[in-house]
Amino acid sequence: MSKASFAITLDSFDLAILRILQRDNSTPQRVIGEAVNLSAPAVQRRIRRMEEAGVIQAHVAIIDPIQVGQAITIFVEVEVISETADLIDAAKREFASVPEVQQCYYVTGEADFVLVVVVPTMSAYEALTRRLFFGNNNVKRFRTFVAMDRVKVGLAVPLPG
Amino acid sequence: MSKASFAITLDSFDLAILRILQRDNSTPQRVIGEAVNLSAPAVQRRIRRMEEAGVIQAHVAIIDPIQVGQAITIFVEVEVISETADLIDAAKREFASVPEVQQCYYVTGEADFVLVVVVPTMSAYEALTRRLFFGNNNVKRFRTFVAMDRVKVGLAVPLPG
DNA sequence: AATGAAATGAGAGCGCG
DNA sequence: CGCGCTCTCATTTCATT
């Protein structure tokens, strides 16, 4: 599946709309219009344009992991042995395919991957480490950071203005 | 403002609804109903109930950071000097208040905080480190991991079933 | 107590000036 | 871009199990 994504120019109206949608996308276009001094149809056209360009990637509900029994959030730094392109790609695909891996970044620095993992119990995490890290010949080592407090969570992008 | 959050029991219908909403919350209730074998009003009531209980925390648009000029995602591990309750609370509040800090977790392990930072340029990041880390007496040291690839991004919680 | 069917109302979508 | 229409969808009511 191809992600539609091409560059478009965003003016201050677009940014103002994004600022609202990224906080609450159920805000009526009418209300958005009042907030940014635009008519509702104008707001709608701009939203559609940003969706088509891939600026707006999705509309989703944010769920409290604790209330659905996935109480534990864990950070993992992963260091690999070989960094050849195909081995890195394989690792990316494997990490990304695991539902418990909520986020995965390929990074520079003292580690190669940083993962955010969400699991119901520590033993579930232990099982995951066996499968994902100990079961992978190319993983040199990994470091675990268990979250005691999710101080700030979100995907909100800092927008100029 | 207080976030309403109290425990409720979720059945398999609720989980099925959540699975859909966390992927696309613009899905019509009619369509959700067909997918889970429930009428639209029943779906509506269950969604409202989960919103009121705090299971559903928000409805948001996901924005591509690159297309809005915030091209750089960075992981930061922060280690503090003193871990007294009030100093930790102060750090939590300071980190959480910064727009560029997209996510902040208080963790166990070799670091005390893990941050996900989104900035337009490396010099913006450098300025942020001066303000947030070098300008804070209680920060012992911090380690930076610059994301070369956002392999998997989201807040989707793994749901049983 | 929770559901589904039907009626109401709000909001999204579209063509027009 | 804004105005006004149409139509879909969300929301309420009510009878039913």
UniProtKB/TrEMBL annotation, chains A, B:
Keywords: DNA-binding, Transcription, Transcription regulation
All residue ranges annotated as the HTH asnC-type domain in the record: 10-71
InterPro entries on file: ArsR-like_HTH, AsnC-type_HTH_dom, Dimeric_a/b-barrel, Tscrpt_reg_AsnC-like, Tscrpt_reg_AsnC/Lrp_C, WH-like_DNA-bd_sf, WH_DNA-bd_sf
Top-rank lineage group of the source organism: Bacteria
Name the record gives this protein: Lrp/AsnC family transcriptional regulator
GO BP terms in the entry: regulation of DNA-templated transcription; response to amino acid
Entry-linked Pfam families: AsnC_trans_reg, HTH_24
Gene3D superfamilies, A to Z: 3.30.70.920, Winged helix-like DNA-binding domain superfamily/Winged helix DNA-binding domain (1.10.10.10)
One GO cellular component term: cytosol
Record-level Gene Ontology MF annotations: sequence-specific DNA binding
